Amino acid sequence: MLDGKNIIGFTRSKRGTNTFKTINPILNIENEMVYYEAAPEEIQEAVSLAHKASLIYAETSYKHRAKFLMAIADEIMALDQTLIAQYCSETGLPEGRAKGERGRTVNQLRMFAQILDEGSFVEASIDTAQPERLPVPKVDLRKILVPLGPVAVFGASNFPLAYSSAGGDTASALAAGCPVIVKGHPMHAGTGSMVSSAIIKAAKDTSMPEGVFSHLNSSGHEVGEALLKNPFLKAVGFTGSINGGRALFDLAAQRKEPIPVFAEMGSVNPVVLLPEILKTENEKWAKTVAQSVTLGSGQFCTNPGILMGIKNSDLNRFTEILAREIKEVVPASMLHPAIANKYDDGRSQMQQQKGTSLVVEFSKETNPNVGRPAILKVSAAEFRENPKLHQEVFGPFSLLVECQNIEDLERCVELLEGQLTASVIGTTEELRGYDFLLKQLEARVGRLVFNGVPTGVEVSASMQHGGPYPSTTDSRFTAVGDDAIKRWLRPVCYQNCPDELLPSALQNANPLQLLRRVDGTLTRAKL
Q: Which of 178, 301, 403, 412 is catalytic?
């Protein structure tokens, strides 16, 4: 199955001559398979095929698309241990994490299949005509969400399955009726290629149009830039760094026809520790925070990178326990030497900032590419004066900001940029007394966590995984959960359209039996 070639529509191609290999970060050596960098001709063909497929695929029934997504899930599971071994060899992550992420990936696909079977995601709305209305007759108006067209999905480094070839962006875009071209992440090209082969097999088996999915290998930025500049492309999904996401966003804005870029980028996910709860539960929360900071070697977009509390003996005790717990963590390999090196540089730069001091750092010798956990602390005054202290260090790292009082803490929160999450740890009684602080945090995040840590993102209808810039490029949308499908849809209104020409979701007989808004009332009734 693995041959290093690009997958374009239903064929494999290696027109490119430039090649690259992935790296096993635990062994710190290159894996054997050679992958071909996508050539310009391959990029053009992938997008052209997606363009040709887009009108056909948009007209497929919701049930047909659901069958396609379910087939993808089944084909991924059929890869079994071969996929798990490939994943582990390219990431350094343990088999348990690989299987857990595979489960999340196939469950997302099945979730979107269920959303398609139910059908209300199109938000069908009907305002019937009132020709007798005076002074102006009311026309018949019917609105529905329709697919945008071909979507480019950029694989994420830290989730080779759940945010990559068949991850949430791809699953939701395919569910919406949009063909997908995946620009595979070079750190796990083999994993991405295997999953992409499963998608292609599912597409063939369910009679989907050629070009509904393609996968392009790339070790640099050129393929992504060429994809984004292609006039047939209609939207982009990205998970990664602020620099990468912003570069794509700017390129999309410079096109003759600007297109949306839904980029999930950096976030420090602040955790605010209120004073009353630390009087009785500082050991519990120190252990919980230590586990969250170091989970997966800190390589989660919801890793808590900043801790904030009011300086007193209870916070001091919390800090001591946190340091003890961090020392007991067995450091793990990071995903790639480049990520490990960047983490070491980021941690070192933080330590060099004025006013920071080391709380704890794993200081023993480690194997190459291991992320050594570290906690620093700084005063609120120094934190406010130095914007560099507000930035993310991607890895098992967090900065504790010691505030003098609640006003001091609020002034620090005021300086935070947009985040995916913020967490507040406090008793129920004291939470009632911090209305202003909670409103400050609400204005800066997509998910506000009470008495919990931010790591762990439930895939469900009520999840919001997105936040104000720079955590994402559009805070109105989520990358996780049912509503992720809305990124790839746009509204179209039909005025006085003959019933037989309307999409099925808007026809009088309601053949899909959808829950529709008719003259302001939700109903499944026929007209």
A: 301
